[in-house]
Amino acid sequence: MEFENKTVLIVGAGRGIGRAAAEIFSDAGANLTICSRNFAELMELEYKLNSKGNQNVLAMEADATVESDVNLLINETVKRFGGIDVLVHAAGLGVIKPFAELTLEDFQASIDYNLKSAFLVLRTSLPIMAQRKAGKIIVIPGVLGKAPMAQASVYCAAKYGLTGLVKCLKEEYKRFGIKFSLMYFGGVDSNFWDNITTMRVDRSKMLTVEDAAKAIFFAATQNDNAVVAEIAMMPESHQLI
After folding, report:
1. pLDDT digits (tens, 9 = 90+) for 201-230
2. Which of 64, 34, 38, 36 lies closest to 49 in space, CA to CA?
3. Distance between CA atoms of residues 130 and 107, nearest Å
4. Residues with Cβ within 8 Å of residue 78, at least 6 apart in sequence
5. Structural contact between residues 35 and 43, judged by C-beta atoms closer than 8 angstroms
6. The Cα angle at residue 10 between residues 9 and 11, in degrees rounded to 5
7. How far is CA 178 from CA 10, 84, 133, 159, 181, in A?
8. pLDDT tens sequence across 161-192
9. How does residue 239 score in pLDDT terms, banded at 50, 70 and 90?
């Protein structure tokens, strides 16, 4: 897929996998909408992409769990670039705790940022893609949207829900030419782990955010007659088959 005159929307682009993906798509010449809840990170990324030669960058501070923010994000993207060719949903929140220590607030935050955000973004963007009968949706449940892990009960609940949501939407929208890809990354050295204190991990053995972003780009660059339905990628020491 050539990205000249193509529009890529990345939700959760301020840091981590979303930011790395934004840099790859920008280097490929895409029109780019980037959004994040963190204004400072977003502005720094916009400046970096502009300075590397891409002036077709729309940066919007937005909370993907807030319906009005999502509506404005999608509407401004379409107004600026005419449509959305690729949507990468990289927003999320890590909640890793023993079950007995979880609060209702932990549960709600995990559902909101890992599942509700995707629901709102997809509900708003899919009709636009369906009208054009084209589009690629790339969502990141991570490996915990496919396999369980101790201390990840509410996180897995949200990510399994995300997987189920996307699989159902694939059935609903396949006649509109929309292609869905699920990215099951495991063990990515990102800000996800910054505030995880209940388990010890060796981040030096994890995948990099650049590894994950390259897989997302691969899924987005398939020809119209092909789709990468799933990618399961993890460190060699944590293989899951």
Report:
1. 776 777 899 999 999 999 999 988 899 999
2. 34
3. 33
4. 84, 128
5. no
6. 115
7. 17, 11, 7, 22, 10
8. 999 999 999 999 999 999 999 999 988 777 76
9. low
- Give the 3-state secondary structure of residue 124: helix
Tokens matching residue 192: 């996800």
Return d(Cα 212, Cα 145) in angstroms, integer.
16
**Which residue is associated with the tokens 């990628």?**
233
> What H or E segment, with its residue span, contains residue 44?
helix 39-51
d(CA 237, CA 70): 38
The residue written with tokens 């959004």 in the block is: 35
Strand ranges of the sheet holding 178-185, from the earlier edge strand across to the other edge: 57-61, 31-36, 7-11, 86-89, 135-139, 178-185, 230-233
Predicted confidence at residue 206, as pLDDT, reads 79
Is 241's pLDDT higher than 60? no
C-alpha span between 76 and 37 (Å, rounded): 16
Burial class (CB in 10 A: 0-12, 13-18, 19+), 40: exposed
Beta-carbon contacts of residue 119 (< 8 Å; ≥ 6 apart): 165
Answer whether 163's CB lies under 8 Å from 146's CB: yes
Residue 233 near residue 211 (C-beta atoms within 8 A) = yes
What is the amino acid identity at position 97? K
